[in-house]
Structure formats: structure tokens, C-alpha cells
Specification:
The protein is of the alpha/beta class. Helix content is 31%, strand content 21%.
């Protein structure tokens, strides 16, 4: 995960349904019966993931049990340079963060049909990454919430590493990539 992003930075959030997959004991709710479905519309059953991506390919993600202004501000403060340009959707916490940190900010609000400002200010790269992440996660039929950050790291590895047998072997034994 990138510890530092700079330049034009795109940020957006996505949500995953809370899952207790892999746990032997569930203390927060009664177990579901087979064939049932998760309550997809209930916000308390969703885990939030903030994805931050710069145009150099650096990417970071943060998993939150509750998405709020304090979590967003603390996470972005750790990794964003003060001379960066932040491109986000219309959420107000990004606007307040940019104002607080004195960072240039472009809000792309879909209600106004603004998907691109100029030719360079958009959130299409981070949204494309989220789309690839979601379609990749489908194969696992739900990921346990406790392991979500591991799966996010695994997906980042796919995005940043050329997939060859020698690279995977070196990564598996803890050595640097060969290429």
C-alpha cells in the first residue's frame, strides 16, 4: 500500500456487505439460514472502504466500520501532499478536508453531469479500479470482514505486479521482485 500519494489524486469510497465468513462463533447477530440473502439496503451491515489513487499508479485503501468525516480526514492526512490536487465525488467530507489542509479540490458531482473537469480532473481511474475490485471479489462469494484488508492487498498486488511465475515465487518467499 502506498504511504504517500501526490499530484492529481482521485478518492472514492465503496462498500462491502459485512460478513462473518470463517468465524466459528458469531456474537453480534443470529446466524443466517441457508439460502437467505443479506440485508443489502441496511447501512449498518456495510463495511466502507476508501480508495485513494494518484496518476502515478500509487494506491492506498482504508477499511472503516463506520464512514464519517473524522475517519476520512485522519486517513487522507497521513498520505496526501499539501501541493496535490484532490478529485472526488460530491461528498462533503472531502470538501472540508481540502479546505482544512489548503489543497486544491475538484468535486465531480454526477447530478450536474460533471464527470470530467477540463481533460485531466476526473475520478474515472479510481472508479475503474473499484469496478475491477468488485468483479474480482465476486469469485469469493463474500469475503469475511476480518480478512477484507488482506483481499484488498492481494488485489493491489495484481494491479502493480507483472504476473510471472518467477515474480510470484520471489514474493512468496519474501524476496524482492526480479523484474
Amino acid at each position: 500500500m502506498a504511504t504517500h500519494v501526490s499530484g492529481i489524486i482521485e478518492a472514492d469510497e465503496t462498500f462491502f456487505i459485512e460478513s462473518f465468513k470463517g468465524k466459528r462463533v458469531i456474537t453480534s447477530r443470529m446466524p443466517k439460514k441457508r439460502g437467505g440473502s443479506g440485508r443489502k439496503n441496511k447501512s449498518e451491515n456495510k463495511i466502507s472502504v476508501l480508495i485513494v489513487h494518484d496518476r502515478s499508479g500509487n494506491e492506498s485503501d482504508f477499511v472503516f466500520e463506520h464512514l464519517n468525516k473524522i475517519n476520512i480526514h485522519n486517513s487522507l492526512k497521513q498520505i496526501i501532499d499539501s501541493d496535490s490536487i484532490l478529485c472526488t465525488d460530491g461528498a462533503s467530507w472531502y470538501k472540508s478536508f481540502a479546505k482544512e489542509q489548503k489543497i486544491a479540490h475538484h468535486r465531480l458531482i454526477t447530478l450536474d453531469n460533471k464527470k470530467v473537469i477540463g481533460k485531466e480532473f476526473h475520478i474515472q481511474n479510481v472508479n475503474a479500479y473499484i469496478s475491477r475490485l468488485k468483479s474480482w471479489m465476486v469469485r469469493f462469494h463474500g469475503v469475511g470482514t476480518d480478512y477484507l484488508s488482506n483481499y484488498l492487498g492481494w488485489r493491489r498486488l495484481f494491479e502493480t505486479t507483472e504476473v510471472t511465475e518467477s515474480n510470484w515465487l520471489c514474493l512468496a518467499v519474501g524476496k524482492q521482485r526480479l523484474t
